Amino acid sequence: MGGRRERGRAVIFCRVAALAVAALMAGCSSLPAGGPGAVEQVVTRADGRPAFALVDLDAGVVAALGQADPAPLPPVFFTSTPPVALQTLHPGARLKITVWESAGEGLYSAPDRRVTEFTVTVSEAGDVIMPYLGAIPASGRSPDTLRQEIEARLHGLALEPQVTVEPAGGLQPRVTLAGDVARPGRIDLSPGGLRLLDAISQAGGPRGSPPETELTLLRGEARAEMRLDQLLQDPRRNIPLHPGDTVLLRHTPRTFAALGAVTAQTLVGFDTDTLTLAAALAKSGGLRDSLADAGGVFLFRHETASRLSRLDGIPPVPSSRDGVPTVYRLDFSTPEALFLASAFEMRDGDILYVANAPAAEFRKFIDVILGPLLGSAESASTVGG
């Protein structure tokens, strides 16, 4: 009786195995998966062109594309000389005129005071009025030229006069600071000019950290964008501001998505100025030993056609408004993979995906297909016995 039962189980197992193999050959693609496998081919469009660029990450690719290209500033932001509005006065501008005399009994001075200050406004006629001097033409002149004019008029009236002319607010040329700054508003420009970082500092600084702060500079029809940490790292971007400029700061944390056979499938934030592929894998918990295919580490992003043109052998791929769909592939089973990953920078919106190993897929096959069949075979054997 026992021998017949064992022979029955063997026959049932063979039948189950045959059914399982047939199921594996015909429908293994129906097994649950977290994404594409490492050995899948590049998908082609109806016109025969590839749907995305597939780039194997090697030393040449890292050298050409490993670092992000900062967005260039339009030439209008690099005007070499200050605009006329910063050099000349105009009606409505308020000025503080200070006169020093060598003795205490001069034209304006007194025994206990040798310094006299006047706050004046350039009239609609373009003049400023000072006691004993009358109307002095100011509009269209620089503060220093006005200073020289006042000193010349005071010669013979005041005691060895020295004069300074400084803006005193009012309708001075201004720039606007808006968005995520501590004190948004308008800032006066002095004749000496004001640079981008100085303006941000006068507005109280950003509310977020520099790597998480996006800066937009508007000047007429021109527009420039950069992260605040890029401004801090590159002094050439700390440009002089012009009247009417608008500086907008926005708190925009950068993130990447970690998917597939990683320890933590989640949206991960950048917490440093730059984040490499190796650091991104570490922040997502690394590869899952029981599932990950070390040869199937992928990075999905949209690249510009100009950047991809730096590489040889990349077939033309249709681009969209966001750029060219690009997949970078890295084989982590090779020793140099860690060095390559440590030199390749992540970008905001990247998708990091680690494929499942073939052994993991086989385990899924056992669980999904063989498990129920073997359970049915055991039940049938028990009933037959």
Secondary structure tally, helices: 10
Average of pLDDT: 80
What proportion of the residues form beta strands (DSSP E)? 25-35%
CATH class of the largest domain: Alpha Beta
Which segments are poorly predicted (pLDDT under 50) over 5 or more consecutive residues? Answer: 8-31, 38-42, 376-384
Annotated CATH homologous superfamily of the largest domain: Outer membrane lipoprotein wza domain like
Number of domains: 4
Structural class: alpha+beta
Distance between the termini: 8 Å
The CATH architecture of the largest domain: Roll
Largest beta-sheet details = 6 strands, mixed
Strand order of the largest sheet: 1-15-14-16-12-13
Helix content: 25-40%
CATH topology of the largest domain: Outer membrane lipoprotein wza fold like
**How much is the radius of gyration in Å?**
36 Å
Helix and strand run: HEHHEEEEHEEEHEEHEEEHEHEHEH
Q: Tell me, briefly, the overall form.
A: elongated
Query: How many strand elements?
Result: 16
What does this structure look like?
The protein is α+β, with helices and mostly antiparallel strands and 385 residues long. The chain has four domains: 2-31 and 372-384; 53-68 and 254-361, Outer membrane lipoprotein wza fold like (Roll), CATH 3.10.560; 75-81 and 174-251, Outer membrane lipoprotein wza fold like (Roll), CATH 3.10.560.10; 91-170, wza like domain (wza like fold). The protein has helices at residues 2-27, 59-65, 84-87, 143-154, 196-202, 228-233, 277-283, 305-308, 337-343, 358-384; strands at 53-56, 93-100, 115-121, 127-130, 134-137, 162-170, 174-179, 185-188, 213-219, 222-227, 246-251, 255-260, 266-269, 292-303, 324-330, 351-356. The strands form four sheets. Strands 1-15-14-16-12-13 form a six-stranded mixed beta sheet. Strand 7 and strand 8 form a beta hairpin. The longest helix is centred in the last third of the chain and has 27 residues, at 358-384. It is elongated. It starts with a helix and ends with a helix.
